[in-house]
């Protein structure tokens, strides 16, 4: 893990840079079973779903 983590981080940062430059929201790995490599956090709707279910953060 110690040797793999820096390589994974470098790949992720490259994927994120390409996505940001191209204005992409999501990038998938076509060589595996629907593995998402990158998702722009501004499209994360987890909190909205939790709120709808009644589990959202108390304000």
Q: In total, how many domains does the architecture comprise? A: 1
Q: Write down the Rg.
A: 15 Å
Mass-distribution shape: extended
**Average of per-residue pLDDT values:** 88
**Structural class determined from secondary elements:** alpha+beta
Helix content: 40-55%
> How many DSSP H or I helices?
2
Low-confidence stretches: none
Strand order of the largest sheet: 1-2
Into which percentage range does the β-strand content fall?
Answer: 15-25%
Question: What's this entry about, in short?
Answer:
The protein has helices at 4-22, 46-53, and strands at residues 26-29, 35-39. With 59 residues, it is an alpha+beta fold.
Describe the model:
The protein is α+β, with helices and mostly antiparallel strands. The chain has one domain. It is 46% helix and 15% strand. The protein contains 2 helices and 2 strands. It has a two-stranded antiparallel sheet with strand order 1-2. A hairpin with a 5-residue loop joins strand 1 and strand 2 (35-39). It is extended. The mean pLDDT is 88.
Question: Any key phrases for this structure?
Answer:
59 residues, alpha+beta, two-stranded antiparallel sheet, 2 helices, extended
Topology:
Blueprint: H1 4-22, E1 26-29, E2 35-39, H2 46-53
Antiparallel strand pairs: 1-2
